[in-house]
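Lab intake sheet, docking and co-folding queue.

SAMPLE TYPE: protein with bound small molecule
LIGAND NAME: zinc ion
LIGAND FORMAT: SMILES
REQUESTED OUTPUT: full 3D complex as structure tokens
PRIORITY: normal
SUBMITTED BY: R.K., bench team

The fields below were copied directly from the construct record.
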Amino acid sequence: MTTNPVEEAVQASQALAAAGLNDLVWGHAAIREPDGRGGVWMKAAGWGFEEIDADRVLLVSPDGEVLSGAGKRHIEYPIHTEIMRRRPDVSCSVHTHAPALSAFACLDTPLLPISHDGVLFCDPPIPRFTQTGALIATAELGAALAETLGDARACLMPNHGAVTVGPDATTAVMYAVLLERACRTQLMALAAGGPKIWSDPAEAALKREQIWNPGGLQAGWRYLLRPAERALR
Ligand SMILES: [Zn+2]
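RESULT FIELD (auto-filled):
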């Protein structure tokens, strides 16, 4: 496991690309700068996840100044700086416009534990940020999103996408991947007239422990990184 924030930002982008969470050049992962000043390392604007290397990662301050690296910052950087301001336990946040979670976000329906993936987002129910479907372009909107996220692993953003968080890139990226899959599975079940059966709270809690323990998350993350590692050989 890496502790270098630039390398972690590159790996987060590569893993999100491998999982198919691209939206052309939009969406981003951010890694907390460990110096305590509230900045984040994140990909430069204008590039897709699979195009990111260490030269395309920027350090962005909480007021949007690019402190290190070359390139333009993403407009929606306040998503990350404001979540990290409110959540000292978070060292990585991921913002994605992936298709299934974007479609599911606009439903007024709880995400149910009908798959292994869904058990992460049902208890408490994943929140939805309904203040705006437009870009999170100001600190005020970022703070409002962070408030809606609360202590949760993820927040759906109707008419926009979602955000996921974790203590490291492994966790936040895997939550984004698993949220997209959980939403896709439930959309399929809804289209077929269901769902009718899902895990009760005790089974969902057991599965969170049994399946999505740190070892399980790490195994998924390593799998997602292998295509990029093979390409370097
Ligand atoms: Zn966005």
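REVIEWER NOTE: The beta strands are 28-32, 40-43, 57-60, 66-68, 92-96, 154-157, 161-166.
SIGN-OFF: pending second check by T.M.
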